[in-house]
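Q: What structure does this chain adopt?
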Amino acid sequence: MAKKNTRNTKGKIIEAAWRLFYRQGYDDTTVEEIIAESGTSRGSFYHYFEGKDALLSSVSYLFDQKYEELMETMDPAMDRFDQLMYLNRELFAMIENSISLDLLARLYSSQLITRGDKHLLDHNRTYYKLLRQIVLQGQERGELRSDVTVNEMVRVYALCERALIYDWCLSEGDYSLLQYGTAMMPMFFGGFRA
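A:
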């Protein structure tokens, strides 16, 4: 039970922070506002985060939370390739509608220069576990190629998503990430259909 409360407290802080970052911008959001918005204490905040900058890498938590929600609503009879494209559309819609472009760009740049944890590449995340599960099922059902390993397919899928997000950040969001991803992801990943 304590572990669930710990996750809830940390999750509340992360969700509150990203709501504020999106509404009023990263630079204009204070730690005190995050604490008030999350309904937690200063001690709780500093137990999980060294400061506001430490929250930048927590966007992967939000992405994983979105994937957990989608796992529960996804049609199990859907073709596994179509499931992957559905997940991509839902993620890109979430990014476009609730994640600040500036913060996303900061996150990507921090992942390029960091020597420590590369949160986006953490294979223990829900994201990678779900992708591996879907790809493996796709191979077992004959929907995805079996001459390519599950890990290689997952790697290519994640690479394609990161490339599209990175390009969107470089282009300062001057096009719809969702629309472009909907057109490009099936082309990039289509070679893995059985």
